[in-house]
Amino acid sequence: MQLRNPIERAYVSRMLPTLRQLQYLKLLAEHRSFSRAAEAAHVTQPTLSAGVQELEKILGAPVVDRGRAGVILTAAGEEAVARAEAILAQAEDLVQAARGAGQPLAGRFRLGVIPTIAPFLLPRALPALRQRFPKLRLFLREDLTNRLIAQLKAGALDAALIALPYDMTGLAWADVAEDELLVAFPANHPLTAERRVTAERLESEDLILLEDGHCLREHALAACGLAPSRAKDRAGEEAAFGATSLPTLVQMVGSGLGVSFLPAMAVDAGLADAAAVAVRPLAAEHPSRQIVVAWRAGSSRAAEGRLLAETLRAS
Questions:
Q1: Could you tell me which residues are beta bridge partners of residue 198?
Q2: 175-192, pLDDT tens digit by residue?
Q3: What is the dihedral of CA 124, 128, 133, 136, to 10 degrees?
Q4: 213 within 8 A of 144, measured Cβ to Cβ
Q5: What span, in angstroms and rounded, lies between the C-alpha atoms of 169 and 165?
Q6: N or C: which end of the chain has fewer CB within 10 A?
Q7: Distance between CA 20 and CA 56 in Å, rounded?
Q8: Percent of the chain, pLDDT > 70?
Q9: Of 96-105, 209-218, 221-230, where does the model show the most confidence?
Q10: Do 155 and 271 contact (CB within 8 A), yes or no?
Q11: Which parts of 263-301 fold into alpha helices (H)?
Q12: What average pLDDT is seen over the chain?
């Protein structure tokens, strides 16, 4: 993009992108369409287009390729979007911190929760949160760990309730609970005679696990020292059965399709009572997962994340 004269170039070189321009670019990257991005920004398409053009002048490089196939980000645009997301997240942190100054966990707080925790921990934790922080407006989003962390880093969430181990690069966290992993099998299975089940004892069993993307799958395999490829049947073929949720998993185990693993918090909440299923502890060095509240490293909401974890620990 060519600027018209040296005076214009000197003026633009002293300018910085506005938050509005960065918001336009972020929406454009999300929607890949000027019209849809303008609709999401609640502005007209010419207004959004003019904002993006001004941003290109300030950066001195085009950020999008405009063509019939839709909007395609340039290399400079991809880099700008990544930085814009971080800047906008920090700006959002600033606003929320200022509004909640002196009033921790007051106002809006966006919390992500993974599906193997949400239905078992939140029912007993939410009443305690409401009682302790009556001005808290909690917005919950249930999703898989990788998507929650992506939203956390992009500023779409303030914190996330997840399970470790997991790659926590760029994040900080506070412990909530240690959640033991238990072996689950049909109620009439020979394993009912065992007080604790060893990993070796499971070698001859068909494992039924949650589908890829659920971190509980990796946690369970790691707890008994098995590789992800262990999810095979007795013939050595890839297992024909997998579950998308813990309730489905319990029903499959109760139907005699195989054995699996359940988090203790789910068993304590009565999940195993929904089918003819028995559970036993796993005889392993660390048969558990660590439940934590995570937030962006350096976030102004870190103190609230720790306070949230403290409240969840006590619930």
A1: 283
A2: 999 999 999 999 999 999
A3: 10
A4: yes
A5: 12
A6: N
A7: 13
A8: 86
A9: 209-218
A10: no
A11: 264-268
A12: 85
